[in-house]
Amino acid sequence: MICAASGKCMTEKNHGAGYHSPGKSEEYKRACYEACEKAMALIEECKSSLEAVTAAVAVLEDSPCTNAGIGSCLTLEGSVECDASVMDGKTFGYGAVGAVAGIKNPVKVAHCLLREETKGLMPLGRIPPCFLAGKGAYEWAIRHGIEETPPDGLVTQSSLSAYRKYKQRLQAFERREDSQAGCSIKKRKVEPAASDHTVSDKLLDTVGAICIDCHGNISSAVSSGGLAMKHPGRVGQAAVYGCGCWALNASASKPVSVACSTTGCGEYLLKTMLARRCAEAVLQSENATQSTSQVFKQDFIESPFLANVAQKHGGAIIVRCEENQAELVWAHTTDSMCIGYMSGGKGRPKTRISRLPESAIPGNSLALEGTVSNIS
Among 98, 99, 113, 123, which is disulfide-ready with 239 (CB 3.0 to 4.6 Å)? Predict the structure, then answer.
């Protein structure tokens, strides 16, 4: 039995060393600690890995310090729209929601979609959905008893303050641009001020988790509030198949279970399908750390699909399980990433904030670590 959870994946303005205040660091670690505790309690009750991973992510969504559920970044219009998905390694079942508003825990909607999908065809032979977005996702969730929340129920003072700050900067930029409206196209080009580059440079968070249950089944989940000041209706990697999370149980031909949950800039993770790429590479390798490093360097940092991107911000947690041993790997190109993990037994969750070396360049360098646990 094992649970791994990831919280903040951050990059600091001006490519600093990724320093976060001790108070905030402890808040991030506490959220991951509680997520692991919640999931492990369910696993020890012989609940499924899917139930456990959903519960872990729901804990992270309920923490105001993460950009998922409560405390999510606001859209250009000042609202909260969230993405989430879950994948069951046993059945390969998948459920996801995108740009959903008014729901306290989007990951629970994704889980419910997966569960309903396993019931088979709906009346008149209709195929049950595995991915819903926007108003349709909200209405479906309410009909299935998922807890809703008022429009401002997911907004915190911190997220509102950030929105107002970014809104002012955006308006200032637009005023400068409008002031040159009478110039030629060449002369109308406006060079952004330094402060214009700070809308998405602070929060690239996506929370996620991976769990293995007492039957050896593995599941993964992911949830995100998206980028700050995103356009309403924007959907990130957290809702997209193969991009936000991936999970595969061991089989007769390949006695290895793998799962991955990603974090970072959704557009970059979408173009590289990082979750599936990491999981499939680890599945074919006996060394999860080495194969993860190769995927991040070759298929993310050096990806031809991101050739025009100066800084590729992303991260992932990956679990590879064979027989009674599980290898957990975490990797990120951002300044820092918060990790929590726990194995079955009487132990407590371990948490830490992984950081790039001070000399590293965020978005072009990789921090990679891991640990091995015996599981029962």
Answer: 98
Q: How far apart are CA 56 and CA 126, in angstroms?
A: 32
Q: Rounded to an integer, what distance in angstroms lies between the CA atom of residue 337 and that of residue 32?
A: 11
CA distance 140 to 135: 9
Q: Which of 121, 375, 87, 35 is nearest to 238 (CA)?
A: 87
- Residues in a beta bridge with 336: 10, 355
Burial of 24 (0-12, 13-18, 19+ CB in 10 A): middle
Residues tagged active-site: 206
Q: What is the pTM of this model?
A: 0.92
Provide the angle, in degrees to the nearest 10, between the axes of the packed helices 106-117 and 134-143.
70
Can you tell me which residue has the tokens 């149980």? 249
Lowest mean per-residue pLDDT among 20-29, 43-52, 317-326: 20-29
Short-list 205, 158, 173, 164, CA closest to 31: 205
What are the pLDDT digits (tens) for 210-257?
A: 999 999 999 999 999 999 999 999 999 999 999 999 999 999 999 999
Q: What angle do CA 278, 44, 341 make, to 5 degrees?
A: 40
Measured in whole angstroms, the distance separating CA 308 from the mean position of its chain's CA atoms is: 23
